[in-house]
């Protein structure tokens, strides 16, 4: 099956039971190289804080590492939680990345905190302020458009002579769709955890879209959760690690990603099982044919230009195999 949409990856840098954090970080490089060789369009890193099962807390460091170890794949944030950061610091960080790897960096921006209330306090997050104010400040720094009497007009953004990479807004309910269109950004929808259908948000985005230098026409990404294995049965077996981890997280018990053997043996409360029953309806799990058919159906239903997959499997080799199977199912042309 040849996909009429691009295929991309999001990496949360999961930390599996029985492995060290250093091993998890090394795996981000191995996965980036695999994705580049397989022909995937882009690879994004999330920003999450205070979660023992996830090593992706500082996307720009992972982006720089992945870009330095690959040749062609676009690498970016999926996304920077802007309320956690001074806009000037983000402007300088992503200008630096763009200068080091011109034409290969994406700046995805999200309004969520990326952690619980304690993490937000530790980050000095501006969660009580408007995301739009942070975004306007970021753009003013990049475009040098502060009014002359504004104190920040005297602050040169370093490094100079470089603009920010293409900017994307991330959403999970459609609230950001109109803003993304009006600003001429790309728009990515988190269908991997949101039960809100992406199609209305994409329609709102496209109707509001105003062309920009980075995006002469609208560009939409639908992010989905995928676990692929040679058979439906094996994929379902491997998915238990993700399912139990999600249930434990929502009930306040956080730990590294457990093996499927331990996950299947874990006795859950009725409330935890209800969480899995509710959330698992969003997950795409199965053989290459099952996964490809389901992704294609969802992409057609939402009119997405691109599908971005995030995959949570305890065994890192089997996670890379999952992406290999999906790329082959969609006849993605590998890069030489």
TrEMBL record:
One of its GO terms (molecular function) is oxidoreductase activity, acting on paired donors, with incorporation or reduction of molecular oxygen. GO terms for cellular component: cytosol. InterPro entries: Bact_Lucif_Oxidored, CmoO-like, Luciferase-like_dom, Luciferase-like_sf. It comes from the Bacteria. Residues 16-300 form the Luciferase-like domain. To bacterial alkanal monooxygenase alpha and beta chains. This is Luciferase-like monooxygenase.
